[in-house]
Amino acid sequence: LCSRSSSDVTQTSRCSTAGCCTRPSVSPDHPAGPYIVVVLCFVLFCFVFPVSRGPIVQFKLSDIGEGIMEVTVKEWYVKEGDKVSQFDSICEVQSDKASVTITSRYDGVIKKLYYDVDATALVGKPLVDIETESGSEVIQEEDVVETPAMAREEHTHQEIKGHKTQATPSVRRLAMENNIKLSEVVGTGKDGRILKEDILNFLAKQTGAILPPTPEIQTPAPSSPPLAAAVAAAAARPVKPLKGFSKAMVKTMTAALKIPHFGYCDEVDLSRLVALRAELRSVAEGRGVKLSYMPFFIKAASLSLLQFPVLNASVDEACQNITYKASHNIGLAMDTSQGLLVPNVKNAQLLSVFEIAQALNRLQALGAAGQLGTAELSGGTFTLSNIGSIGGTYAKPVIVPPEVAIGALGKIQILPRFDTTGQVIRAHIMKVSWSADHRIIDGATMCRFSNLWREYLENPASMVLDLK
Predict the structure, then answer these.
(1) 332 lies in some domain
(2) pLDDT digits (tens, 9 = 90+) for 257-292
(3) Which of 81, 328, 380, 465 could form a disulfide with 302 if both were Cys (CB 3.0 to 4.6 A apart)?
(4) Are 453 and 377 in a shared domain?
(5) Residues 17 and 65 in one domain
């Protein structure tokens, strides 16, 4: 090594391989001199003390509930080599019931993606490999969580005494920032560990929060190909397997085929309701809520179901037992980019017309963003389908198992009708088509239910007497 001090090295001296000093090209007095020294020290430090990395963890796809065993990978938000932190979005997967965003449980680097886009991922199998950072807590992945989703909901508010709640500091901080008691949250991780997803799901149920939509990449529309090219492309089009919601519709409609449907049609004069909505519309908009006719239809259905609870029931596959549902979770058939989905308004019997409108606004926003989840799509007890929104008048709606009744609402038309004095007047008329499970619902019951529902809508002031 050179024995000369840095002060002895002149502008022309430098250290040769033989140990003698010769002149360097840069003097310490040169403006770049100090920076070169710093860079050399940093390189030496990194060589002697390399950055410590933690183990590579296989991040497995956990059970997302409803007995789902496989999902389709719709989009990756990361690629191999990307650095991720806890709670960062990794990918979006779609089951036959809902779309779910998978988030990271670790801080580290993505080392491997196990699936391509549109591939089928299995619950309990590795989704990605993550090289964790040294010192970060590694959560042992479970194979498959076998606890049913309903069992988790039943125990949501149970507090296990004498048992310390397991959660990482970041999860505890998230709970504290949102004033959430960890004892009220059911963990889906190993040994009941509370994950970030559990906190967000709990918060969404409490506040009805809407998750921000995933940004979509706008691609220019392709120009129309020539006729010959279009015919050739159609002829060469490959067979497309059914996945996700399309596959779910096959299962649902196949099960519906076993139900003996009974149909009933009627018409409703909505003239008074049209006038009432015109008065209330600006009031609702002032509160930031769009008020359509559907909240009135749902509330009238809920009030009618109180008198005819058999229409808010379900029957087992062998048709040996009828289960009467206390909650009126009224579904709304919704045409989305993902296909026909039926989210539902929970506990409509406890909500006002304005609160139902708020719930519908939220469901429509989630549907437009493609973010309707299992919580919104499961648990329905009765369904209304608004075919009038696409210009329909009549329909023969198909019952959604395990429900036993459904209604299709046509468009509102201005038609001539006679009033009580025999004079011809302009009336706002809507056609309604009902389908019911004829194994447990007879025609008279369906007719009486429809008459009561119609009476509420033709005289909306009568609903005030029964509102809760």
Answers:
(1) yes
(2) 889 999 999 999 999 999 999 999 999 999 999 999
(3) 328
(4) yes
(5) no
For residue 21, name the pLDDT band (cuts at 50, 70, 90).
Answer: very low
Specify if 241 maps to a domain. Answer: no
Beta bridge partners of 383: 331, 406
Same domain, 258 and 352: yes
| Spatial CB neighbours of 318, under 8 Å, sequence gap ≥ 6 | none
Same domain, 45 and 181: no
Number of separate domains in the chain: 3
Q: Are 292 and 385 contacting, i.e. CB atoms less than 8 angstroms apart?
A: no
Beta bridge partners of residue 331, listed in sequence order: 344, 383
Assigned domain for 217 exists: no
Say which residues have a Cβ less than 8 Å from residue 306's Cβ, sequence separation at least 6: 349, 466
Catalytic residues: 438, 442
> Residue 15 carries which DSSP code?
B
Residue range of the domain that includes 16? 1-50
The dihedral sign for the CA sequence 374, 378, 379, 385: positive
How far, in Å, are 231, 311, 462, 464 from residue 303 at the CA level? Answer: 54, 12, 11, 11
CB-based contact 254:242 (threshold 8 Å): no
**Of 308, 307, 351, which is closest to residue 329 (Cα–Cα)?**
351
Q: Give the Cα separation of 208 and 423 in Å (integer).
A: 49
Looking up residue 376, the CATH number of its domain turns out to be: 3.30.559.10
Which band of pLDDT confidence, cut at 50, 70 and 90, is reported for residue 105?
confident
Assess if residue 286 is contained within a domain.
yes
Give the contacts of 9 (CB within 8 A, at least 6 positions apart). Answer: 21, 24, 28
DSSP string, 213-276: PPP----PPPPPPPHHHHHHHHHTPPP----HHHHHHHHHHHHHTTS-EEEEEEEEE-HHHHHH
